[in-house]
Structure formats: structure tokens, C-alpha cells
């Protein structure tokens, strides 16, 4: 919010454009409080976006919590469509709809933020003939979002927030002279999002099916074949950049390994009890199984603890492992 407040404070009431804002919010957040906060810093007329609102110049629209903000035919669309990169609202969803509806008239702006939302959407705006603008990552409180955009999209401007208002006003006053046809895949993908859920034949037109599953619904993923940003989406509408999908797989793998570690610890404890109660050769066999299992437990624990290794041989247990095991 500090970055947003600093930016909108620079925009005049007579701005010849409409401003749409996506902020990543918790589902139970108060969007009205944020609108009041923004309104106290700007002369723009501020609204918490409502479905069907007419879009007006000099007006600012904030995406409500847990809803995507889209634009089409001079009106606002507010939907509870599938999350994109695990976000709802998502900047990618807004940028895509702006690219489809307004083509070269759209200007996409990415400010401070974490992870990768906005990167794919900025590329769609560029492909539709629009302008891509990001905050200088060196001054951003969280540089991940602008850095991701710079690394993957041919950004037109990367400037500090203090210079962004004047630049936006200049860009809004300069209408593009050449017409630019919006690519068919952008129009199709935007239409799917407007209907909330797409159909498999439609998604097949956007990409090729790959042997990967959607982290949120378990459906098949399609790899988008248009543009340079590697993206994936399922037919229900969940969408991911490759970086976002990789992060999801890493978290799922870690969760699975912690479960495996717990089960191995339980198995070790059961074998230890069996060895204590047993006699003779049978008891010795259980103790050997316990020793073997301890080796696997120690290796897995070291891997989970950021790959840290001990100076002891794999078959030996250090003090920390002895206390934990």
C-alpha cells in the first residue's frame, strides 16, 4: 500500500485514462478500508470494483478481496474465477483482459511484490501492442515481481515510483498512431477467463498437453505455446508460470518427504520394541534392521535440513540425530 499511495498521489483528477489496481489480499480483508486509504492520497475518484460498473476516465478501481478484476467493452467484470499463480485477485488476469479489450491502449504496471504474478500478463500486454512498465527493483521493498518481469519480458520502462506518475500521464496523453491486431490466443484466453471455466477443446488451441498435473485441482496441464514466458494452465482455469509451478512441486515434495520421515521414525521405534522383546537370532535381525533404517533416517533428515551434512560417517549418528531419534 505505501507504494500504491505514493504512485496514485502523482496522478491528476483529469487523467485521460482509468486506473485498475490488483493487490494481493487475504480473502477476509476489507477492500473498502484500502479504497479509503487510497482516496486520501489522490484526486482520482476511487471505487471498490463492482461487476458491471461503467469505466470512467479519472477513476480508480480496486479489485475486491478474493475476486478477479477484469475489463471488457467499457465495463468492469468481477469474477471468482480459478486462481492464477495461487492468487485471486491476480495481476495476470487483469493484464490479460486489458490486453484483449484495449490492445495498444493498455499500459501494464508492476510494483513491489513477491513471486511472479504480473510477468505473464505484461507479456500479453506487450504482444497486444501495449506498454509494459515496472518499478525499479533496486528501490522496491520486495523486488521479486519487478525483477521477474524484467528477466522475462521486454519492458519499456523501469523507473523509481517518484518518476512513474509523470511518465504515466505522458503515456496516457499520447495515443498510439498505428493499429495493432490483438493475437487470437489472447482473445481466446480472455474469453475463457470471463466465463470462469473453459472447455478442453478451447484450451487445446492454446497449448499442448504435457504429463504434469495442476497443483490445485489435479487436472491435466497444457503448456502454452504462444509468447516467450513459459506458462501452464488446466482446462478449469488455474494458470501458472513455470517458476510458480516449480515452486509448487518443491513444496509438495518437501511435504511428502516430511511424511516419509515420520513414517520411518515410527517404523524404527516399532522395530526397536520388537528387538527388545525378542530373543536370540530373531532379536539380532531386528536390531540390524533398526541400524539400517537409522542410516536412511539420518540421510533424509540432513536433506530436509537444507542439505546440511555432518562430519560423521553415514552409518554413525551424531549428537543431534541421537537426541532426535
From TrEMBL:
Pfam families: CheB_methylest (PF01339). InterPro entries: CheB_C, Chemotax_prot-Glu_Me-esterase, Sig_transdc_resp-reg_Me-estase. It catalyses: [protein]-L-glutamate 5-O-methyl ester + H2O = L-glutamyl-[protein] + methanol + H(+). Gene3D superfamilies: Methylesterase CheB, C-terminal domain. It is an enzyme of class 3 (hydrolase). It comes from the Bacteria. Keywords: Hydrolase. Its EC number is 3.1.1.61. Residues 1-175 form the CheB-type methylesterase domain. This is protein-glutamate methylesterase. It comes from Hymenobacter koreensis.
Amino acid at each position: 500500500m505505501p507504494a500504491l499511495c505514493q504512485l496514485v498521489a502523482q496522478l491528476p483528477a483529469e487523467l485521460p485514462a482509468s486506473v485498475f489496481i490488483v493487490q494481493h489480499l487475504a480473502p477476509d480483508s476489507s477492500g473498502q478500508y484500502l479504497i479509503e486509504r487510497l482516496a486520501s492520497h489522490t484526486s482520482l475518484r476511487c471505487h471498490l470494483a463492482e461487476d458491471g460498473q461503467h469505466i470512467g476516465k479519472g477513476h480508480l478501481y480496486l479489485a475486491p478481496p478474493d475476486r478477479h478484476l477484469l475489463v471488457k467493452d467499457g465495463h468492469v467484470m468481477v469474477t471468482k474465477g480459478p486462481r492464477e499463480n495461487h492468487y485471486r485477485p491476480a495481476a495476470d488476469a487483469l493484464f490479460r483482459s486489458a490486453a484483449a479489450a484495449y490492445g495498444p491502449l493498455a499500459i501494464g504496471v508492476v510494483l513491489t511484490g513477491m513471486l511472479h504474478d504480473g510477468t505473464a500478463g505484461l507479456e500479453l500486454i506487450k504482444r497486444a501492442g501495449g506498454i509494459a512498465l515496472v518499478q525499479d527493483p533496486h528501490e522496491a521493498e520486495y523486488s521479486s515481481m519487478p525483477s521477474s518481469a524484467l528477466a522475462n519480458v521486454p519492458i519499456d520502462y523501469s523507473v523509481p515510483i517518484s518518476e512513474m506518475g509523470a511518465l504515466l500521464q505522458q503515456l496516457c496523453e499520447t495515443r498510439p498512431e498505428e493499429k495493432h491486431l490483438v493475437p487470437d490466443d489472447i482473445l481466446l484466453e480472455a474469453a475463457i477467463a470471463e466465463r470462469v471455466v473453459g472447455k478442453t477443446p478451447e484450451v487445446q488451441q492454446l497449448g499442448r498437453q504435457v504429463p504434469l498435473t495442476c497443483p490445485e485441482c489435479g487436472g491435466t496441464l497444457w503448456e502454452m505455446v504462444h509468447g516467450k514466458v513459459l506458462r501452464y494452465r488446466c482446462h478449469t482455469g488455474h494458470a501458472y508460470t513455470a517458476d510458480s509451478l516449480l515452486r509448487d512441486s518443491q513444496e509438495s515434495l518437501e511435504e511428502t518427504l516430511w511424511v516419509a520421515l515420520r513414517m520411518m521414525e515410527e517404523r524404527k521405534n516399532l522395530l526397536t520394541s520388537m528387538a527388545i522383546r525378542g530373543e536370540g537370532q530373531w532379536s539380532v535381525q531386528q536390531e540390524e534392521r533398526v541400524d539400517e533404517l537409522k542410516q536412511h533416517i539420518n540421510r533424509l533428515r540432513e536433506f530436509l535440513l537444507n542439505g546440511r551434512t555432518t562430519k560423521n560417517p553415514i552409518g554413525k549418528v551424531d549428537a543431534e540425530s541421537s537426541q532426535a531419534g
